[in-house]
Model the fold of this input.
Amino acid sequence: MKNKIITSQEKTIKYYGKPLRVRMKGREGNQYQQYYDNKEKKWVWAHRRVAQKMYFPKSKIPKGFEVHHLDEDRENNKRENLILLHYKDHRDLHKKKALEVKRL
Done:
C-alpha cells in the first residue's frame, strides 16, 4: 500500500517583506515544510534550501547528501539546527537512535 500524501492548508506569509507561499506536505506522519519558489516555478523543501544556501550558496547539494535536523524537529529549519550528512551516515545515525530507544 502506498503512503497517503496529505497536505495541510497552504498560506502566504511575509518573508523579508515579500509574500511567500508555504505549506506542509509529505507522507502521513512525515511532514516537512515547503515553500513555492517563483523563480523555479516549483515547491521546494525548506530545510534543503536553507542547507544549500549555507553550504553551497552557488550550487546545489551534491548527490548522495541529506539534511539532518539536529533537534529532530522537522519544522525547525534554522541554520544552527541543520547539518549535511552523506545518506549512509544519516541512515546509520537514525538506526543508532532507534536502537537506543528500543533498549529503554
Summary: Residues 87-103 form the longest helix (17 residues). Residues 5-103 form one domain. Strands lie at 5-7, 11-15, 18-27, 30-37, 42-45, 65-69, 82-86.
